[in-house]
């Protein structure tokens, strides 16, 4: 396969993953799909999971992947970027994408491991699953420890899992682009106008 066509495929594949990461991270700010928890957290009350505020999906899996995706996609088109220099730059941009994807993966993994912030049975707000011996992910019976917001455990697991999967796919695609860009630097982009 031509390195230019491969770059186009990788760039186009990164767009929906970056947008998915941004959307998932933004939705995580609204547990139970209500803005009251974000407002209370902004007022100094502990209502949102810390990993949501680290913006791994917006910054890491979103912006730090979306900007490289634009350049990677353009290296596959005939024009100013579809040459050896453009392929070399795509390696640098893909490396930035790798860093962004790794950040998104790390934040999502920690968010999944630590669990959500919720109101516990004793009426206080906190993270009830953070210091237990077994994983709450494999024991859905203890999810009832979270009284408010409703279904916050499922909400966090679903969205952090989507961020984790999107981050892993972004990492693979950006890693492939580093290799593809290296071949593009050496062999060219298969376009007639090199």
TrEMBL record:
Bilayer-crossing regions: 12-30, 54-73, 85-113, 157-176
This one is known as Transmembrane 4 L6 family member 1
- Organism expressing this protein natively: Triplophysa rosa (Cave loach)
Q: Name one Pfam family in it.
A: L6_membrane
The family annotation for this protein states:
Belongs to the L6 tetraspanin family.
Domain of life from the UniProt record: Eukaryota
Give the record's keywords alphabetically.
Answer: Membrane, Transmembrane, Transmembrane helix
Q: What would be one Gene Ontology cellular-component term for the protein?
A: membrane
Record membrane topology: Multi-pass membrane protein
Q: What is its main location?
A: membrane
Compartments annotated for it: namely: Membrane
InterPro entries in the record, alphabetically?
A: L6_membrane
Q: Which taxonomic lineage does the organism of this UniProt entry have?
A: Eukaryota, Metazoa, Chordata, Craniata, Vertebrata
């Amino acid at each position: 396969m031509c390195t230019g066509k491969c770059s186009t495929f990788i760039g186009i594949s990164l767009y929906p993953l970056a947008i998915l990461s941004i959307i998932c991270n933004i939705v995580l700010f609204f547990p139970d799909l209500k803005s009251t928890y974000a407002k209370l957290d902004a007022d100094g009350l502990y209502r949102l999971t810390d990993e949501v505020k680290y913006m791994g999906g917006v910054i890491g899996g979103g912006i730090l992947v979306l900007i490289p995706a634009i350049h990677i996609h353009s290296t596959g088109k005939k024009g100013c970027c579809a040459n050896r220099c453009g392929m070399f730059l795509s390696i640098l941009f893909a490396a930035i994408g790798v860093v962004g994807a790794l950040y998104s993966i790390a934040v999502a993994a920690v968010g999944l491991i630590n669990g959500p912030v919720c109101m516990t049975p004793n009426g206080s707000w906190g993270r009830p699953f953070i210091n237990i011996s077994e994983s709450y992910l494999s024991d859905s019976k203890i999810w009832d420890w979270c009284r408010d917001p409703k279904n916050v455990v499922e909400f966090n697991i679903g969205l952090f899992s989507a961020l984790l999967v999107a981050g892993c796919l972004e990492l693979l695609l950006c890693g492939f682009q580093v290799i593809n860009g290296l071949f593009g630097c050496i062999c060219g982009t298969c376009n007639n106008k090199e």
